[in-house]
């Protein structure tokens, strides 16, 4: 059976930077406090009026097409992982496809917060392995600035905007996605969510005035879950596939917090020179973090490299995916 291999990668971040120094003027915080607790020094912000997640996704797919010589008419499935869709409906994947001129594909969104890209990658894998689709584009994108309260230092310092995209194709070389361990636990909803804007609490003057359309996070609880669960998933996928630290070329962790990344690397007995880390310049782009890491490191990746991607997000959702690089 053919495996679904990543054969191309693209990415995009806005030009505008929001530095820690700039945040100091917006909320009660400082550079040292932010860096010590998160590892973040700056993040990118899409502030242009009328621009949303689809616009970030479009640019990432354009870059992907350039990277691997893909023509939009060749795409037969486009999956978008996002927490910040352009609209409640239609799917942001539909809007991305329309803006790109993708006409020979169907498309849909996957929502799993920061684990969205891993979930979407697993879905795309199944379409390729079934033989029904040969060129599947998976996009991870979020415009987190659209749901942040910049008077709340617990959340405003963490997130940024960005998008990444990969191409999945069938491969008989032995390279491709080999295994995934994906999980969710709805108990986490009370610790990390957006209070208003959904069907249980539709938008109203009251919900807007009381600032309920922003990210709400209980940082200490989320941190404890993330440290444990992300590392657990990496350990599980390594044990299932008889992998040691020496076997791995790279660990690609969700870029939520450097302390969480460090803890996950220690559990896997990995030195930090095998860990992709770009949180300092992008912050947490939610669904975008994993493909943006692959984009930043694409020139260092070699066909056959053993790679584990891992994430933890609201829901709670978490997991790890083991693959052999296919490009």
Molecular structure report:
- It is a single chain.
- With 327 residues, this protein is of the alpha/beta class.
- It has 2 domains: 3-173, 3-Layer(aba) Sandwich (Peroxisomal Thiolase, Chain A, domain 1), CATH 3.40.47; 178-324, Thiolase/Chalcone synthase (Peroxisomal Thiolase, Chain A, domain 1, 3-Layer(aba) Sandwich).
- The protein contains 11 helices and 13 strands.
- It has helices at 20-24, 31-38, 53-68, 92-100, 116-130, 153-156, 205-209, 219-240, 258-267, 279-282, 289-296; strands at residues 3-12, 17-19, 42-44, 77-81, 106-110, 136-143, 161-171, 176-184, 192-194, 215-217, 250-253, 306-313, 317-324.
- Helix 3 crosses helix 4 and helix 8 (219-240) packs parallel to helix 9 (258-267).
- It starts with a strand and ends with a strand.
- The mean pLDDT is 97.
Topology:
Blueprint: E1 3-12, E2 17-19, H1 20-24, H2 31-38, E3 42-44, H3 53-68, E4 77-81, H4 92-100, E5 106-110, H5 116-130, E6 136-143, H6 153-156, E7 161-171, E8 176-184, E9 192-194, H7 205-209, E10 215-217, H8 219-240, E11 250-253, H9 258-267, H10 279-282, H11 289-296, E12 306-313, E13 317-324
Parallel strand pairs: 4-5, 4-6, 11-12
Antiparallel strand pairs: 1-7, 2-3, 6-7, 8-13, 9-10, 12-13
Helix pairs in contact: 3-4, 8-9
